Protein 1
Amino acid sequence: MPTDDVERFLGALSPAHRDEVRKQPRPQQEKLAAAWETELREDTDLDTLSELSPAAAESEAARRVVEGKDS
C-alpha cells in the first residue's frame, strides 16, 4: 500500500488520468494530491460513498480534482 500522497492519488485515478498526471512536474502532482486529500476530507457527499466503498470515494475525488469539477 503506497504511503506517498502522490502515489496514493495516482492509484485512485483512472488509467487515462494517471498517465496525464504522471506527465506533469512533481510539484504539480503534489498540488493535485493535496487537493485530492482536501476533497476527501471536506466533501460530505463523498462521506456517504466512502462508507459503501472507500476506493470508489477516492476514485471519485481524484476524478473531480483532475477534471476540475465538483460533480
Protein 2
Amino acid sequence: MLWSDPKNQPPKFLRDMQAMLRRTGVLLALAMVVAMFVASAR
C-alpha cells in the first residue's frame, strides 16, 4: 500500500452508526449487570 493511496475508511455516517451501536452495547451490558444485582437482591 502506498502512502498516496486513499484511506480504506467507511463513510462518516457508517462510522457514526458503529460508534452509536458500540455505546448502545455497553449501556445494554451495564443494564443487564444492574438487573442481575436487583434480581439477586430480592
Protein 3
Amino acid sequence: MRFRTEAVGGYNLDGLIQLALLLLAVSVGGVIMLAVAACRYAAGRPFVALLIAGLVMAAPLAALAVFLLG
C-alpha cells in the first residue's frame, strides 16, 4: 500500500515508514528475547548472551518510550 503523495504535501514517505516498521520489529524481537531470557533465568538455566542481545535490540523501543513519556 502506498500513501498518496497529495495527502502528505507531496512527500514520498515510503522509506521512512519502512524504516520505522523495521525498527519496531527489531525492538519487539528484543522484548521477546528478554522474556525468554527471564524464563530461562527463572528455571535456573541463565543464558547471558540472550539477555545482552535482547537488551541491545530492545534499547530503541525503551529510548522512544522515555522520550515520549519524559
Protein 4
Amino acid sequence: MYRVLVYPYNQGDSCLAEYRSMLEQYEIVSLVCLKGANENGKFAGVQKDTSAGILITENYEGEMDKCDAVLFLEYHFLEHKDTYIEKMGSALLKNKVIMLNQTIYDECQKLIGDSSNIVIFDNSLEMELRQQVYKKRLVQPDIPVAAVMSLGENCNKFEAQLELRKKFMEKGYKVLQFGTKDYCELFGFKKLPSFLMAEDLSIVNKIHMFNYYINREVLKDNYDVIVIGGAGGILPFDQYISNHFGEITFIISSALNIDINVICIYHNDQAKVEELKEFREYCKGKIGCFSDYFYMSDKQYRIPESHQIEYFQLDRQYCIKSIPEIKDDDIKFCHCLDEEKKSQMLDSIICELEENIELV
C-alpha cells in the first residue's frame, strides 16, 4: 500500500479525496496546493464533517514525511515548471516514488534524470497498433458498452465514471474501463490510449485503431461490460471555446456501438425537460446514440471577454436547494449531490443493460 501526497491539489481533482476508498493499493495521506492558493487550510473529501476529510496545506516539505509517493498533477504546470522540478528533486532525494504523466516527464526528464522511482502514467500504444495488420472494418465487442461524456471540461465526468464503476462492481460485474484522468491506474483501470490525441493520425485511422484496441482488450479477461469516458466536451461552446469540436467523443462513438450514454452537464437550476430532450436528439445525430441519462455537476463556467474559460465550484447547500425538477419517463436525471437519485439512476442503467443485453 503506497501512501500518496498529491501536488498541486485543486478542486478539479477533488475525486482523489472524495473517492479515495476506491483507490487500489494507494492511500491519499496529504493534499498540497500551490503557495497562496485558495484551497489552503480547507478540507477535501468532506461528507458530513471535517473529521472525514483531508486538510489541504501548502507545506510540501512538511507533508512529505507522511508519504511513500508523490502524485504530480498537470495543474498550471508550465507556469510553475521550476517549482515542479524542485519538488520532484526533493522527493527523489528522499527516496520517494514520483508519479506523473508523459507531458510533465518529457518537460522535466533532463533535469530530474532517470530513476526507478519514477512512474509515468500513460497508455501509449501508437507504434504497436500502427504496426498491426487489421482489417478496415469495425467489429463490435460481444459485451455492452457504457459511455460517459460531458458538455465540457470540469463537469464531474470522472466522478460519474467512478460511480458507474462502483455500481457495476457492487453488482458483481467485471468491468473493462478506460477513463479520462491520467491517474486512472490508481483506481484500477486504464486511461484512454494516447493515440486518440495524436496530431499525425487521421480520424479514420483513430476510429479503426480504437475499435481494434478495445476488441483486443476484451479478449484478455472474462469481462461483463465496457465503461469508457469521453475526453473533452461533446460540442463547442462558441467560436473561441471549441472543445476540439467533440473529436474524441466522435471517435469513440464511431468505433463502438454505445448501449448506454451518460451526459454530464453543468449545474443549472433552470434546466427543463424539453431542453434535455433537445440535447438527447442532438446526441443521436452527432454521435449516433440516444443519451437518456443526465448527470448534473455542482460546477459552472463563465467565459469572460478574454475568451479564457473559467470553471468554478458552487456552494454545496446552494446546489442542493436549487436542483431542478426533471420528471419524464424518457429522461433519467440526477444531481451529483443527490445520493438517492444518483443511486436510482445508476440502478436504472444496470437494469436497462440486464433487460436488453445478457451480461455473462
